[in-house]
Structures
1.
Amino acid sequence: MRRLLVTGGAGFIGANFVHYLVEDTDARVTVLDKLTYAASPAALEGLPSGRVELVVGDVADAALVDQLVAELGPEGAVVHFAAESHNDNSLRDPAPFVETNIVGTFVVLEAVRRHGVRLHHVSTDEVYGDLALDSPERFTESSPYRPSSPYSASKAGADHLVRAWVRSFDVQATISNCSNNYGPWQHIEKFIPRQITNVLSGTRPRLYGTGENVRDWIHAEDHSAAVWRILTQGQLGQTYLIGADGERTNKDVVQAVLRQCGRDEGDYELVTDRPGHDLRYAIDSTRLRQELGWAPRFTRFEDGLAATIDWYREHEDWWRPHKEAVEAAYAQHGQ
Ligand code: NAD
Ligand code: DAU
């Protein structure tokens, strides 16, 4: 049985990945998570204790990370999700983004280097900056790094560290850069769950600027399957882009949420734009599909969205206690 250390495994995508590991593999998992405001330990409840253990701690704590990596043994691997992940927060206070995303990744790299352990580093398409709204261009593995926000700059910094540790120290690592995820357990500060929970609360969705910005949506389950495929079959030192051809304008997404909830499609509000707001992301995932044979299961965004709306409807006890504070924080910025 393979041993894995999953950093950030109590967060949205990390927890989804832990479920994937339990259901589809025989891996034994240690989750290292600081349990910040973004974590959902509830997402790990009920998983078999013989398969999943939660260690509460900081990925930037070198002694702790060294001990956990040493315990994995030579057949083990680290999958590194832990990060501060929300762009809007990085614009209000960038400090934790530098500490967790850059220093935390440095700490992980030094531990896997010392113990000769395999690493998969989870990153984002935002490191490539943005694309024009009306262009056919998509990001590829050779797109230049051009991050716009403190969040994406900190993820770009982390990617550069991983690449340098591969080249200079022969660390056995792969990197993935994925597009926008949606699905269960995503924090309600993020776009899709914020709008779903607005509609379920009887308030209007909030679109930044004109609502014309484009994101390329992928279900978190498809991201998890891709990460496993790269970890087990990917070429060491290689970067893989993960995306499911799910480009939509933000307005299209809000209108789909309204429609699926039986509300008028025009019942949204335009609010203050995000400073430096990236226009469009789009992923060309040809390498991942052709070299590793991965393909998404959620090929119709509207079906994945409907399932996600149902999930938030059924898990109001999880999100409701945080809704008022999240909205009050946005209101301070006219959003
Ligand atoms: P999230 O904010 O939902 O979860 C992050 C998790 O990391 C939380 O459980 C949090 O407690 C933990 N964490 C934060 N700081 C920590 C620290 N110092 N030590 C240990 N744990 C810490 O984020 P997410 O959306 O699940 O994103 C996970 C990863 O995937 C991130 O690296 C992110 O950059 C990347 N990613 C996200 C998306 C997306 O659409 N959400 C897309 C591409 C890549
Ligand atoms: O592309 C991958 C990235 O996707 C990840 O690296 C990030 O961790 C993840 O948060 C996400 O970043 P975005 O900034 O694209 O996601 P967010 O959910 O914050 O916003 C999605 C789009 O919706 C973006 O264009 C801003 C807009 N938006 C967001 C909110 C919260 C709105 O119009 N209204 C809102 O209320």
Note: Residues 3-181+217-242 form a domain with the Rossmann fold fold (CATH 3.40.50.720).
2.
Amino acid sequence: MEPKWWQKAVIYEIYTKSFKDSDGDGLGDLFGVIEKLPYLKELGIDCIWFTPIYPSPQVDNGYDVADYEDIEPAYGGMTAFKELLEKAHALGIRVVMDLVLNHSSDECRWFKESQSSRDDPKRDWYIWRSPREDGSEPNNWANKFNDGSGSAWTFDEKTGEYYLHNYAVKMPELNWESRGLREEVYRVIRGWLDMGVDGFRLDVITKLKKPPFVDSPKKPNPFGYVLDNEIQSCNPGLHEIIKELRENTWGLPQYDAFAVGEAGGVTEKNAEEFLSPKRGELETLYHFQIVSRNRPTVTLKAYKEIQDNWGQIFNRGSWTTEHLSNHDQARQVSRFGNDSSKYRKPSAKCLAMMTHVFPGTPFVYQGEEIGMTNVYFDSIDDYNDRYTLGDYAAAIRDGMTPEDALRKVRINSRDHARTPMQWDASENAGFTVPGARPWIKVNPNYREINVSSDRASSDSLFAFY
Ligand code: NOJ
């Protein structure tokens, strides 16, 4: 069978906020991306995946969506997006949007309505539960960001119930048991497809089906809550949700689109339940067996075994992806390679080759193509990542000194990947306009590691890619 376009594509992930700032507000934006489209074309990519660029209070850098049908004004709004889509398509570059369907922002109209009264028609679009008899949270689950009290539930005074948020307090979980919610989401997604979007990356898609709302038997943390990640993914009933989602959106015959699921809890053993073309669920996904925040690295032996295992699924018509880093992970050359001046380039090339020669669609994360590295800031104030801030606060509450807490939490901070793209050796790496201040500090090594210097060198990584 003739391969589909997304099976032949190289996908480049853009974290817009850190890519290129065109107007000097310190935030990357879509006009900045438009300016760099020729760069991306030259790099040879076929498709861009944008992490969420919808209007958002940015509690989790856009993964807290306030309006699923618009584009963040600070990124240039819908005008910039439409221009970008047209220009990218003219260059033969497709555009994939991030869909955050597990939770929204509490500033989303849907949540405000849901919160307005127990009888609101959108009440069941979110997960509301009564307090226990003593007034405490409905169960002992912790939120992943150690936000607020640490619980996954926040009490709403007005309506006297708790809502569920597995991430930040301001990120309430959507309820996929609700017919009304499902139909609205399908309508919204079709709107993006009709505009010409080529596909979607589905945020934490394996978590849409919730487990029973009972206490986790695992040992609570010092604050009395349990972070039990295992119970949240791949629950019975998930496949029905994904199948219906696809049938009503990108799977419709009028679109030539695809979806890549962020698939926590999926291994080669259950992957085909999602990927087999017979199932009509996901075209592809990415798993966490190699690249995971909970594991600093993998041995070469483990890497080989995992790749061998996943290789089997292709024989039966399924398809998967390859990546070694993204916006949630440390920089790949620092983590799996060696970022010393002697070995940075050769090891980055080796990792690039691994990603691109294995079967599956390769994903390149911005900056990887010039070997950008991890960063270690000396003050917690320079960090922005919710995990880093939450874990730091918890370490301090737990009695750790600020120095030790910082040393601990910066190891696997997601901010390693989120510092501004290093374009050249000028002030702030050429990310923003002269005199402006980037939303997060640039990596101090930008004078040596940047696009201009890489491309001028005889052993250019960019050229290797
Ligand atoms: C996965 C995203 O990649 C990450 O950045 C985000 O914090 C969580 N999902 C919550 O949306």
Note: The longest strand covers residues 94-99.
